[in-house]
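The authors assume throughout that readers already know how a fold can be written as discrete tokens. What matters is that the chain and its backbone geometry are given together, residue for residue. A single example would do more here than another paragraph of explanation. For illustration, here is how one protein appears when written out as sequence plus structure tokens.
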Amino acid sequence: MLIVSALIYYNYMRKARANSRLQSLNSEIKNQQIILANQALKVQELNESLNAINETLEIKIKARTKELHDKNNELELKNRKLEEYAFINAHLLRAPIAKLLGLIQVIDAKSLDEYGHSSMLESLRSCTTELDTVVRQIAIAIRNEEYQ
């Protein structure tokens, strides 16, 4: 009987220690669950914060893209104006200069009578006036570009 009592007591103590250990482990698991729940909340808050930052960045990117598009359009317009200016320089301005140079060569090459001199002077005057008009147009175009 004494041996049976000792065995019962020994099993009782073993169960008590096992139950105590289980309660300790359960308590530890509950603490870890609370910690994990808090970390999950923090992760969710960080995700919401990242989403807000992404939205802000997308808005900024769209604004900057529009700004770049507008600047690109502005540069294309300036390019076209520069091409117009180059055309004026290459053709309109060059034509009266070529006429003037031709007239000078004619005057140098020939001895002209009074009628020929007056005709040449009239041609020189006409070419000079034409050249002056083109130069004024260029000045106006450049001035208008500066104010835009």
